[in-house]
């Protein structure tokens, strides 16, 4: 193997390294942008301008926030399990990088082409909850523990309907490859699976909000009940990593939603990647908008919603998708 | 590194009384005094089974300032500024209760114009208190946005009251026998403009917040308190009105000129957090009605009775009850004929309202406890005094 | 006018008060032995316990229970006096659970021992606070007769009838022009 071969994008390892670098850059940059978007949307929802003074329209505010977070002392509480305590934020961030790999950014923009991308994302997104348990347990804090307990129940409850709704689309498309699923839809809304199968799209969106612990389903961190839930004791970048992981997870679920339900990169006039980004940001905006509009649900209501409504509905939807796929060929 | 020894963390008396038993797998949780939804400095000891509350007990005193001792050290007028600090959200009602008690003791008759101004500013203050409660309660329930709308409306009130009293929060505007200063010329028009503005906002609040299915799920059938429970605990104000008893000091023992105004006393029979919520939302309209009538019928005349420079009531005792935003405020003043009160007793409505919490919280979820606590509308400085 | 139920309280004496002048309609003097039953009667009548107010007098600690019906101007005061050296009053927190905290507050400020109270420990003061802040010096204490020249004292034989028929003249209102 010579150097030329090693530097070629066809070589898997090189591709992986470059892909991971791109992901880190994208996630970091996008985290900053999303913090700004979140605060701007929140501000405008609340009759105030949001960040305004650092840079034009406060664009540089997240950068200053990041510098502040990085500059802060990392404090581990007395009696905490140090290893688990510091492992948790890293573990929160690890699955993000893997889940980003199979996202179809454009018709020929895959970091690593694989025909089971959907399975990879679903498998690794389940890892995120582990970090919340470790954070809650390791920080030797009762609020953290309650938050961790909540996050387990919540993540188990919402993974089931999420999986079922994704399965419905996968059966309709006959593939687990996000590229193929995207390619089978067209550039116009009536060709999208989200329009053909709105129930699955709705279930996916609700579950996505719950899986990313965003309001109105932000129970593991419910700050008015559990002070800050699992990240009560984290300071500085420990908190920052959880924060970044939350935004990265939002991008992943939005990316999957765009690929599965909104036709992925397809759209008129613009090159694929722009359409993909536009669709991702529309969904992100929707998730942020939800947070600043609704009160938080209670824990038993959250579980009831999943087990009594979303799961049966998702099963029904899956059955319908199987029947339609069977007859339609 | 020093090994962790749980016994090294010595609790205080309140937590010692909550020690778990030998076979318990219960979680003892100290909620507060720095918890986001205990509104400052309330602390609640909780015994939890999972997230279900087995026992709850508020621990008070974190902002205790001994106002009753201060009253005995100060002259009658010197104590008036304390009234703005007891309940900082409805300072006017406390002003009124104290001024009223001393006036009753001295037999002073307050000029009509002063009475009307008192009604107008107290009701404005009540609206600002209810608006702040509304925002803070929704904040407790996880809705971040309404408090900004509430503050937007409240800002108008604070501007009006600033022009009248000179301060924005801790008013000491009342004086024995009247009010300190006359209202500015545009007071009536600003009040009317504000009530018009608030009435136009209320339908939006109803559509966006009150009728929200998540909010309903968090408030309905939570913390149900019947009239009997409220009576035994001495809960008053919106708490007892939410339990179906249309009890209001403004109607029961009309003070000032309240018997001249036509207003409705809202009451709901459900007794849950939602009923208390609805009572307060309806009271915004009630207060608007009273303000309209008060500023439109504002008579001309003096704003202070002649009481002299030093206030020296004859010996005797008197109490004065006022309907505050949180319930019945009563101030007892006992005079020995000297320049300082012999004894002043402040009856804070929040004190009695909070004592119901132990009963209401039992068997609910932690999140419900936050909802119940918010629905009682607590102002801790008033409870701790 | 005294509410009818006051007759059932077994009071040593009761006197009507002028609501416009004092905010109460009746004052009932009881003893530590009779207070518990009296409060139970008031509870059955549907009264709401507004507060429990203690004050430090020459005669001892006076404890006043203010009760009123849910509606109307009908505040009744039940009073009793306990000596300084043995301030013991039976608790009424078994009748009115709301009295629990009011009694703890009186314990905080005056050290009055409410017998039978389930958890009589500090409520508002810090747990390591020593003493009771509202207890006055012996010099500063006033007798009840110095404080409340009200008709009920006359009725109870605690004071001589005053020459003026009205307990509450308006001396200050008349004196006001002199100050200016």
Explained architecture:
The complex is a heterotrimer of chains A (329), B (385) and C (180). Chain A has helices at residues 3-7, 12-45, 61-71, 82-100, 117-125, 128-138, 142-173, 178-184, 193-196, 198-211, 223-226, 236-261, 272-291, 299-328. With 329 residues, chain A is mainly alpha-helical. Chain A has one domain. Chain A is globular and about 60 Å long. The mean pLDDT of chain A is 84. Chain B has a domain at 78-308 and 370-380: Cytochrome-c3 Hydrogenase, chain B. Chain B has helices spanning 13-16, 67-73, 80-86, 91-106, 112-140, 146-165, 187-210, 213-219, 227-233, 238-241, 249-252, 273-296, 349-355, 357-361, 366-375, 380-384; strands at residues 27-31, 43-49, 52-59, 174-175, 178-179, 316-324, 327-335, 341-347. In chain B, a hairpin with a 2-residue loop joins β6 (316-324) and β7 (327-335). In chain B, α4 (91-106) packs antiparallel against α5, α5 (112-140) runs antiparallel to α12 (273-296) and α6 (146-165) runs antiparallel to α7. The longest helix of chain B is centred in the first third of the chain and has 29 residues, at 112-140. Chain B is globular, with a radius of gyration of 22 Å. Chain C is an alpha/beta fold. In chain C, strands 1-2-5-4-3 form a five-stranded mixed sheet. In chain C, β3 (47-56) and β4 form a beta hairpin. Mean pLDDT of chain C is 78; it is low at 163-180. Chains in contact: A-B, B-C.
């Amino acid at each position: 193997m010579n150097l030329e071969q090693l530097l070629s994008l066809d070589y898997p390892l090189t591709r992986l390294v470059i892909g991971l670098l791109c992901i880190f850059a994208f996630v970091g940059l996008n985290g900053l942008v999303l913090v700004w978007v979140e605060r701007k949307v929140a501000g405008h929802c609340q009759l105030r301008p949001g960040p305004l003074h650092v840079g034009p329209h406060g664009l540089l505010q997240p950068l200053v926030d990041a510098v502040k977070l990085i500059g802060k002392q990392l404090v581990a509480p007395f009696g905490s399990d140090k290893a688990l305590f510091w492992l948790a934020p890293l573990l929160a961030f690890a699955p993000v990088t893997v889940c980003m790999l199979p996202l179809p950014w454009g018709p020929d923009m895959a970091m690593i082409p694989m025909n089971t991308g959907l399975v990879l994302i679903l498998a690794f997104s389940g890892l995120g909850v582990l970090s919340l348990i470790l954070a809650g347990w390791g920080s030797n804090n009762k609020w953290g523990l309650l938050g961790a307990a909540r996050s387990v129940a919540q993540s188990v409850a919402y993974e089931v309907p999420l999986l079922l709704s994704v399965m419905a689309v996968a059966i309709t498309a006959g593939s687990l490859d996000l590229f193929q699923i995207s390619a089978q839809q067209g550039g116009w809304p009536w060709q999208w699976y989200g329009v053909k199968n709105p129930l699955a799209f709705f279930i996916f969106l609700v579950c996505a909000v719950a899986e990313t612990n965003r309001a109105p389903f932000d129970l593991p961190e419910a700050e008015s009940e559990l002070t800050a839930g699992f990240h009560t004791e984290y300071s500085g970048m420990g908190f920052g990593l959880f924060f970044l992981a939350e935004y990265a997870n939002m991008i992943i679920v939005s990316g999957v939603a765009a690929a599965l339900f909104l036709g992925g990169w397809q759209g008129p006039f613009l090159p694929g990647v722009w359409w993909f980004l536009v669709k991702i940001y529309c969904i992100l905006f929707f998730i942020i908008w939800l947070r600043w509009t609704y009160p938080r649900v209670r824990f038993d209501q959250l579980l009831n919603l999943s087990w009594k409504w979303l799961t049966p509905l998702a099963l029904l939807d899956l059955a319908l998708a199987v029947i339609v796929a069977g007859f339609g060929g | 590194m020093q090994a962790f020894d749980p016994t090294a963390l010595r609790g205080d008396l309140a937590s010692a009384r909550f020690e778990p038993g030998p076979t318990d797998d219960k979680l003892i949780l100290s909620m507060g005094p720095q918890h986001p939804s205990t509104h400052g400095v309330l602390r609640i000891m909780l015994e939890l089974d999972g997230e279900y509350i087995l026992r709850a007990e508020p621990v008070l005193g974190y902002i205790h300032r001994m106002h009753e001792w201060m009253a005995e050290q100060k002259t009658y007028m010197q104590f008036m500024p304390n009234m703005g600090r007891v309940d900082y959200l409805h300072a006017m009602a406390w002003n009124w209760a104290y001024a009223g008690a001393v006036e009753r003791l001295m037999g002073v008759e307050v000029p009509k114009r002063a009475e009307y101004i008192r009604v107008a500013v107290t009701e404005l203050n009540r609206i600002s208190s209810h608006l702040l409660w509304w925002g803070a309660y929704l904040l407790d329930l996880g809705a971040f946005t309404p408090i900004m709308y509430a503050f937007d409306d409240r800002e108008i009130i604070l501007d009006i009251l600033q022009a009248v009293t000179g301060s924005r929060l801790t008013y000491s505007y009342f004086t024995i026998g009247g009010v300190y200063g006359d209202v500015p010329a545009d007071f009536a028009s600003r009040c009317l403009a504000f009530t018009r503005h608030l009435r136009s906002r209320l339908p939006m609040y109803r559509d966006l917040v009150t009728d929200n299915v998540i909010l309903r799920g968090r408030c309905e059938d939570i913390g149900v308190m019947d009239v009997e429970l409220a009576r035994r605990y001495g809960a008053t104000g919106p708490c007892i009105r939410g339990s179906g008893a249309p009890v209001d000091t403004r109607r029961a023992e009309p003070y000032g000129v309240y018997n001249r105004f036509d207003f409705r006393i809202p009451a709901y029979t459900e007794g849950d957090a939602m009923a208390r919520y609805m009572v307060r939302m309806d009271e915004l309209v009630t207060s608007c009605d009273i303000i309209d009538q008060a500023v439109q019928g504002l008579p001309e005349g003096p704003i202070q009775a002649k009481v002299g420079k030093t206030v020296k009531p004859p010996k005797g005792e008197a109490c004065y009850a006022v309907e505050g935003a949180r319930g019945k405020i009563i101030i007892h003043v006992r005079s020995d004929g000297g320049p300082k009160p012999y004894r002043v007793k402040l009856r804070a409505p929040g004190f009695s309202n909070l004592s119901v919490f132990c009963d209401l919280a039992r068997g609910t979820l932690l999140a419900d406890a936050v909802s119940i606590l918010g629905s009682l509308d607590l102002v801790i400085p008033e409870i701790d005094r | 006018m005294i509410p009818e139920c006051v007759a059932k309280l077994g009071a040593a004496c009761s006197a009507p008060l002028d609501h416009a002048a004092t905010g109460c309609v009746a004052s009932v003097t009881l003893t530590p032995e009779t207070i518990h039953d009296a409060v139970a009667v008031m509870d059955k009548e549907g009264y709401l316990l507004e507060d429990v107010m203690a004050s430090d007098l020459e005669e001892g600690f006076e404890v006043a229970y203010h009760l009123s019906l849910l509606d109307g101007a009908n505040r009744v005061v039940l009073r009793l006096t306990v000596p300084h050296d043995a301030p013991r009053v039976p608790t009424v927190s078994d009748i009115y659970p709301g009295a629990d905290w009011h009694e703890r507050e009186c314990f905080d400020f005056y050290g009055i021992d409410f017998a039978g109270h389930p958890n009589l420990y500090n409520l508002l003061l810090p747990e390591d606070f020593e003493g009771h802040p509202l207890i006055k010096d012996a010099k500063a204490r006033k007798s009840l007769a110095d404080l409340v020249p009200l008709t009920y004292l006359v009725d109870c034989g605690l004071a001589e009838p005053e020459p003026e028929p009205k307990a509450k003249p308006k001396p200050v209102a008349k004196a006001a022009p002199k100050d200016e």
